[in-house]
Design goal:
137 residues, 4 helices, alpha+beta
């Protein structure tokens, strides 16, 4: 997948350089379980507000997500209809963008408290790397 190869290559190089230079490095690998299913709609609204998305567009998205209702069926029972309050919809094009934007808040908050790593090439790597819900810090 686009992004994953670059992500892994940079982490591999950082680890290799730390080992060659007898340096200390701590890497935390995060893979959030049910990441798509754990994004509250209010977080999306707060994120869009923080990034100065116009009110009319935020209201349109809120109306869109508030319109989702689900019910589940098994062989024996079917639930009542329930409004979707947490979760973004897999397969929905705008949900991918909203999910990435919300996850970006986590990455940005970690960058403020961490400094990047100086590589042998002279570049400074970001202290956090992410692709969707897979992150390294």
């Amino acid at each position: 997948m686009s992004g994953c190869v670059e992500h892994t290559s940079v982490i591999t190089q950082i680890t290799k350089e730390a080992q060659e230079n007898n340096g200390d490095i701590v890497v935390i690998w995060l893979d959030l379980a049910n990441a798509y299913g754990s994004v509250p709609h209010q977080l999306i609204q707060n994120t869009l507000h923080l990034y100065h998305v116009p009110v009319r567009f935020r209201q349109m998205l809120q109306h869109y997500f508030n319109g989702f209702t689900l019910k589940f069926s098994t062989r024996d029972i079917t639930t009542d209809w329930h409004r979707l309050e947490i979760c973004i919809v897999t397969g929905c094009t705008i949900s991918v963008v909203l999910f990435s934007t919300a996850m970006n808040l986590i990455v940005k908050s970690a960058e403020k408290t961490s400094r990047g790593l100086n590589m042998a090439s002279g570049t400074i790597q970001s202290p956090t790397r992410e692709f969707m819900d897979d992150m390294t810090i």
